[in-house]
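Example 9 (inverse folding). The structure is encoded as follows.
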């Protein structure tokens, strides 16, 4: 099989020129150079993918430096793995790796690597459909190398590991199997399914570092079909295997996430699902789960704010005749994803109307005055500035002040009072 035409249809003549030159250069030095992994798979499936991963013999970093020097690019080297990224002037990036085999000292550990031939390089990969290579050599440009039946599995729609020790070597492949299976509508082949079940039962997920687990979960949460992926992870016991708190799922809530994000015009969907999974959990358990996934400090703070405040916010939103400033006070304690989850969870239209009012109107209200205006009025900066400006904002939300002059005179009166109370 030859994929040159498909490749040329997807990339600009300039990038095709780079790729062909890389192949020629490698051949001149007696090396080989292949495109590997996801791009070959997605070329065959007709899926969007423009990430170029090259495998070369005779050292990945040296080759990356060579092509970068020729094309005026820059090289970023990735430590121990003989891999590097070539950043090209036109904004393109190409990943280059030395052809290698891997040895896993223990489950979940990062592999030790040694130079090897193409077949061994493909053997270390996760699934047959990801173990395909496309030659860039001038002699056989575009030819697909398929030592493990990847083409047949792509045709029949199977996710299949290359060997029985695959999940033991790297348990993150459990998550990748789910991601690729659902993304392409492929079946996990029977033996692979059994190996997955026994890897989960054997507790292999515990061996994976929070950083690697978090990275795999982020990829899943960023996928379009995140819900069926989460469902399949749950069916395999993989969410519970990360942390028990991730195993107790309110599916009705999660199913409501896409429509609530749409209703509130919110783009950020991945974190909303994760927060949705942890929505009913006590803060402590959710924090442990977040640490297990190596969430960033900012993400953990967002999650804590959401879990600590949503119940009170929901309770408040039930009351009739709320002032806009009260709705603002209550909902501004939540991150955007919290609004979406409240929307999905409440189901009640008066609450939803208030969520929309907050999102579309109240959260956008800003004062026309700042601390500098208070200084111009002769006040000395201090904590009272913040207090007064917040109160003026509330008055604006409640439509008690309209113009900049109104804001200024209210702030002046309030400052005057405070200064009198606390000279
Ligand atoms: P995506 O479309 O999600 O980016 P991809 O296959 O390009 O899919 P990457 O994570 O970029 O995914 O990996 C590139 C290639 O590296 C894979 O196709 C696979 O051959 C190999 N690979 C990546 N992760 C693993 C892993 N954990 N174990 C074995 N091989 C892996």
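The amino acid assigned to each position is listed next.
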């Amino acid at each position: 099989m030859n994929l040159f035409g498909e490749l040329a249809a997807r990339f600009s003549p300039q990038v095709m020129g780079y790729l062909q030159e890389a192949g020629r250069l490698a051949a001149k030095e007696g090396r080989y150079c292949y495109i590997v992994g996801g791009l070959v798979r997605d070329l065959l499936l007709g899926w969007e993918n423009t990430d170029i991963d090259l495998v070369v013999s005779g050292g990945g970093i040296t080759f990356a430096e060579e092509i970068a020097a020729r094309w005026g690019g820059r090289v970023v080297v990735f430590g121990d793995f003989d891999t590097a990224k070539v950043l090209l002037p036109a904004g393109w990036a190409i990943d280059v790796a030395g052809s290698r085999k891997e040895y896993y000292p223990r489950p979940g550990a990062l592999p030790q690597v040694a130079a090897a031939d193409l077949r061994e390089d493909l053997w270390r990969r996760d699934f047959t459909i990801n173990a395909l290579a496309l030659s860039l050599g001038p002699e056989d440009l575009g030819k697909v190398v398929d030592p493990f039946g990847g083409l047949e599995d792509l045709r029949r729609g199977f996710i299949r590991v290359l060997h029985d020790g695959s999940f033991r070597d790297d348990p993150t492949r459990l998550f990748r199997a789910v991601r690729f299976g659902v993304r392409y509508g492929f079946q996990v082949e029977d033996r692979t399914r059994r190996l997955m079940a026994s890897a989960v039962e054997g507790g292999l997920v515990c061996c994976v570092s929070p950083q690697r687990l978090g990275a795999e979960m982020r990829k899943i949460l960023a996928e379009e079909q995140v819900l069926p992926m989460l469902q399949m992870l749950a069916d395999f016991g993989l969410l519970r295997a990360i942390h028990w708190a991730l195993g107790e799922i309110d599916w009705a809530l999660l199913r409501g996430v896409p429509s609530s994000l749409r209703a509130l015009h919110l783009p950020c969907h991945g974190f909303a699902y994760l927060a949705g999974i942890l929505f009913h959990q006590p803060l402590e358990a959710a924090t442990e789960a977040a640490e297990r996934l190596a969430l960033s400090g900012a993400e953990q703070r967002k999650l804590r704010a959401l879990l600590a405040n949503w119940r009170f916010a929901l309770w408040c939103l039930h009351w009739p005749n709320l002032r806009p400033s009260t709705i603002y006070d209550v909902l501004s304690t939540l991150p955007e994803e919290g609004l979406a989850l409240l929307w999905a969870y409440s189901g009640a239209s008066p609450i939803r109307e208030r969520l929309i009012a907050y999102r579309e109107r109240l959260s956008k209200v800003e004062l026309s005055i700042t601390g500098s205006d208070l200084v111009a009025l002769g006040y000395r900066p201090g904590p009272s500035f913040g207090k007064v400006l917040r109160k003026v904002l509330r008055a604006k939300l409640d439509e008690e002040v309209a113009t900049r002059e109104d804001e200024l005179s209210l702030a002046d009166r309030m400052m005057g009072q405070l200064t009198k109370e606390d000279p």
